[in-house]
Amino acid sequence: MRRRRGRPLNGWLIVDKPSGMTSTQVVGYARRVFDAQKVGHGGTLDPLATGLLPLAFGTATKTVPYVMDGTKVYRFTLRLGEARDSDDADGNPVATSAVRPTDAQLRAALPALTGNIMQVPPVFSALKVAGERAYDMARDGRPPELPPRPARVDRFELIDRPDADTAVFEVESGKGVYMRALARDVALAAGTVGHITVLRRLRVGPFVEADAIMLDKLAPNDDNAPASADLLCPVETALADIPALALTTDEAVLLRHGQKLGLFELEGRIPPTDEQGTLRVMEGERVLGIGRLEDGWLKPVRIL
Q: Do residues 103 and 109 touch, judged by C-beta distance below 8 A?
């Protein structure tokens, strides 16, 4: 068996992604700079977008789904009066409108786009249609008809109106919500068309802007030594906003070996959870992994 090249690093690096790079390019850059064996990311950002892109090294990749399930906060600038095929400034113009809605008209459009909604994704997206990526079909002049998908938008606010052509919004949402589609739809609901010119992600799950590091801070030094592993946050940082359940040593041993625990023995210790019953399982101060409440049992889902 061939040994994987690179250092076996484990942890999270929270990058402030620059505009113009794909998320995959950022992952590749980080892998090279850290000389790391395994790196993935916790939620794709469009090339135009900036902001938080959490990178998972080694065993941290096991916790990626929990980061992607976490709440995200975005800020975007909507250019009113012109629609583009990609719904952002990287696309080609496809429609124009002379209508410039008032602040009140824009705010009146927000409630229908808040809560549990059905959203039609942008045609320039990575979704697959009959085995092909939607963005490949769109580039070939065959834009697909994408069906609406469930999306959860917890907060959608107009926060600034620099001029008649421009509006700035802040959004708090669950996973899988397309900001480009929200921008497109709020413009349409207000009687005009529009596209995103600036998009920034401010939060992903437990990670916030204060955690982020600029890519140029990772540039190799004069001796070309790999970036320091001290820049990585612990693997369990990704689980910080999941309710915690303390186990005894004996209970931890059972769970670590894949056995489930009866809830009767845990009575009085179980905190409120999400709809899936997800818990961060603790052995003293150490994060053992992720468990789930199901059919009267605590079942191990992911042991770190």
A: no
